[in-house]
Amino acid sequence: MEPNRTGMTRKDFLKLSATVGAGIAIGASGIGAILGIPKPQADRSKASAQSEEDIVPLYADHQPGIVTPQQTYLYLAAFDITTGSKKDLIAMLKDWTRFCDLSAKGGTMSLGDNPLVPPTDTGETLELPPSRLTVTLGFGPSFFVKDGVDRFGAAKALPLHLKDIPRMARENIDPDISGGDVCLQICADDQQVAFHAVRNLIRLSTGRASLKWMQEGFASGTPGKTPRNLFGFKDGTANQLHDSAQGYDEVVWAGADEPAWMRGGSYLAYRKIQMKLESWDRTSLSDQEATFGRSKVSGAAFGAKGEFDAVDAAKLPEHSHVRLAKDAKQQIHRRAYSYTDKVDPRTGNVDAGLLFISYQRDPDRQFVPMLRLMQNNDALNAYVSHIASAMFACQAGLQPGQYFGQRILES
Length: 411
Prior knowledge:
The chain is of the alpha+beta class.
């Protein structure tokens, strides 16, 4: 095809004309759809066909993905808000909310009717079930106040215990993969479903927020059983101690002393823990078990027969992982995932480990003292290094018609 005088092909010209024409017709706010900032629209034929066991509803008393039975795959993504406009921020959070509701039901955004512009949805979940997809949103300290400046009038809504995790012994925190204004924890039993969600949520943030970091994790295991970490030990056994409505109220859900938007929410504590797998794999089984204070096969604590039997701290090695967790006299709700990444070209060692995630109602009382005790005394420190850190406040659940952050930004 011959180029015209502007250096554009006829095809390019028609494509541009369609874009400009659409922009004139729908106005400045609508041009975002053409630039990759679409508003979610349901493909109802797909959403209506999903089975109930595949669906975890977005709208509930508490956000999904906190005490929801753990799914197989995780994407944890943190964003920095780049817009200074409260109106634009609210628009993004509304777009995110609509997309999360639609995707949880197994729907997709409309691909659009104009073949000359990019489709609204990336399309990789067409014909796929929702696979228990959940999206959990949390706000970081810098969402409310940054460099001493109140952002979006949100400072008055700052939760009681939301602050960066204090510096700890033996950590090597990388600020580039830590913190963030907003966090999205995206989980599903199908990795493609989970990635589709994070991919499209990134698209929906265009011009209003930028991706700061993202981590990918997995937690394979028999449904209903405690998953194992890459050291081969069960991870999350103690969750059964508070596995009841009363237990969650005492351990997980923020109480009446918090701002109204946070009551029934929870604090997400995050640590990326790099494991020295090569050193661990050269360690004897007896030393591995002494490091944890548990049987590797059964998960039972020393002196017990079953995984969930009561722990007698006196029968555990003084610096064992389980002994110190018991000595902290606090409970947290663990939701950790393993990760594998690149190979260090200098050593040939694999970068792999644990994306530690826990939820608690008061991190100052529950999480931080436990972490400090572990960092100072845990025998496991010989085999791990903490390389990223963050704390986020996850609001209470949404009701139909509400959007993420509404009670913060409209209070």
